[in-house]
Each structure stands twice: as structure tokens, then as C-alpha cells.
Amino acid sequence: MTSYFDMLNRHGLKIWGSFMVGTLAAAIPVIVITFFFTFMLAAIVLARLSGIDPFNSSPEAILETLLNPGMVVVGILFLLFFILISLLTSAFTSAGSIGVVADSIQKNKTGVGTYFRYGFRRLFPMLGLHLVTLLLAVLPLIPVVIGVLLFFTETVWGVAWGIILFLLTIVLYIVYGLVVLHAPAVLIAKNKGVFEALSASFHAFRTKFGQVALSALILFAITMAGGIVTLVLEGLISGINPLDPYAEVHPLRSFLSLILMFPVNSALQVIVISTLVFRYLRVIHPDPPSDGTPGSLRSGPEAPSPVESSKLDREASP
């Protein structure tokens, strides 16, 4: 079985490069489209305000002009468009990045083309998974909503129950995160549908809770360590204290920090996603050997059977 570090040693640079190329390919069109529509929205707002004298008009009149039904509809459409573009971009990058890692594990090959193949081919299933998980994430909010209502009763029991329900919501979100943790990996690596992926992720949570929780802890530790490293590097590059909210920001150095930190952030994403996918495919839900018997996965060529060895010996003898 190929180990995690062997996989990164063989394919790490290709995965890293694929992540950067794929992310840029997804981000640049979104930035251009967003800038264009923002410019159009600003032009519409200025056109509406062109007939108003800002020095002789009351704030109420200006606000009424901006909040007329036509402007509200335009604003809502712009917001919905921005949300849709963000969801599509997130689905594309998620599918592509998981696909690159999955192919490196399952097929021992990967590349930039793999990123785009999975990104486009599994775009809408991943989008559906994102939408379903977002909708399901609303359910754990119910206790905290009830808790807020009880908290504002300003009674001792109301405040106590409000705190309890708030803590319950935190626990529910942790459980929910563990339940759906591996759904994206299943969707791509196992080529499953949205609900099949959610079902498989829940099955992993139910049958191998310890391994799923360990995956979450490992990912949390990697994210925290990576966050600290990136925070320090950004501070060194930009020349400001990242913990000081009142520090003076230098636009040029901030832009330089954004450019230089992009490869670092991409490397962190490689480690996180590689860990998630590798642990699911090799630890939590490994494929059975080709002969169907229990045992570890084999990545190299199988040894010939005794019958085949005897036949080969006879053919080799004079």
C-alpha cells in the first residue's frame, strides 16, 4: 500500500501546481465578471442620483430614490448572481482538488488536466452537495433560536436554558460536521450521487466514529498550525502586526503579501485535502483487494500463483 508520504513525494508538486492553476482559472473570470457587474450597478445608482441635488435634497429623498422597487430588484438580482457565481466557483475548485488527490491515490497519476476534468464533470453534483449541506446546516440552529428567545425573558431559568441551548447548538454543529466530513471525498473518489455520498459519509461516522473523529482532529491541527504560519509570514511580508487592528496598512506591501502567500495557502490546501481523501480511501473505507479477500491494499504487481510459477519454470527449462 502506498503511504501518505509516498503519495505526496510522488505527486505532491503536481497536485500543488494543479491547485494553483485551477484556483487561478476559477478566480480570474469571477473577479472580471464581478468587477463588470459592480461597475454596472454603480452606473445605475449614479444615473438614479443624477437628477437629485445632493446639497438641496434631504437624506430621506436620496434614500427613497435608492430604495425604489427597481433599485431593490436590481440589488437582489446582483446579490443572487454573486451567490450563484461563488457557489459554482466553490464547487469547481472542490471537485477539481479532490479529483486530483483521488487519482494520485487510486491511479498513481495526476495532473492539471485531471483538475479540470473533475472540476467540470462533477461540477453540478458538487454544487448540489454544497446546497444540500447548507440547507441541512440550518437545522442545528433551531435550539439556539429558542435559546435566544428564552434568554430575553430575563428570568433565571430563561437565561440558564438559553446558555444550555447555545452549548447544545455548538455540539450539534460539531456532530453535523463529522457526519458530512467525508461526503465531498465520496462524491468524487467513489463517483457517487449527492445523497449516496451523504449516506456513505454518515455510515462512516456511525461505524468508524473514532477514525472520523481522528480525521477531524488531524485536519483541525493542520489548519491551526497552517494558520499560525501564514499569519506570521503575512506579518513579515506586509510589515504590520497581524494582531493589531489599528496597524497602518501599506497597499503595495499588502498586495505583495497576497501574491507571495498564494503558493503557501495552496500548499496548505494540498495538505488538508490530501489528508482528508487519503484517510477515507486508505483507512476509513479502503477498497478490498482484487481477489476479494480481506487484507491490505496492494499497489505493486502481484506475484504469480504456484501453478503459474510451475508453468513458467517448465517453459524456461531447455
UniProtKB/TrEMBL annotation:
<protein>
    <recommendedName>
        <fullName>Glycerophosphoryl diester phosphodiesterase membrane domain-containing protein</fullName>
    </recommendedName>
</protein>
<feature type="transmembrane region" description="Helical">
    <location>
        <begin position="158"/>
        <end position="188"/>
    </location>
</feature>
<feature type="region of interest" description="Disordered">
    <location>
        <begin position="288"/>
        <end position="318"/>
    </location>
</feature>
<feature type="transmembrane region" description="Helical">
    <location>
        <begin position="127"/>
        <end position="152"/>
    </location>
</feature>
<keyword id="KW-1133">Transmembrane helix</keyword>
<feature type="transmembrane region" description="Helical">
    <location>
        <begin position="66"/>
        <end position="88"/>
    </location>
</feature>
<feature type="transmembrane region" description="Helical">
    <location>
        <begin position="21"/>
        <end position="46"/>
    </location>
</feature>
<feature type="transmembrane region" description="Helical">
    <location>
        <begin position="253"/>
        <end position="278"/>
    </location>
</feature>
<keyword id="KW-0812">Transmembrane</keyword>
<keyword id="KW-0472">Membrane</keyword>
<feature type="transmembrane region" description="Helical">
    <location>
        <begin position="209"/>
        <end position="233"/>
    </location>
</feature>
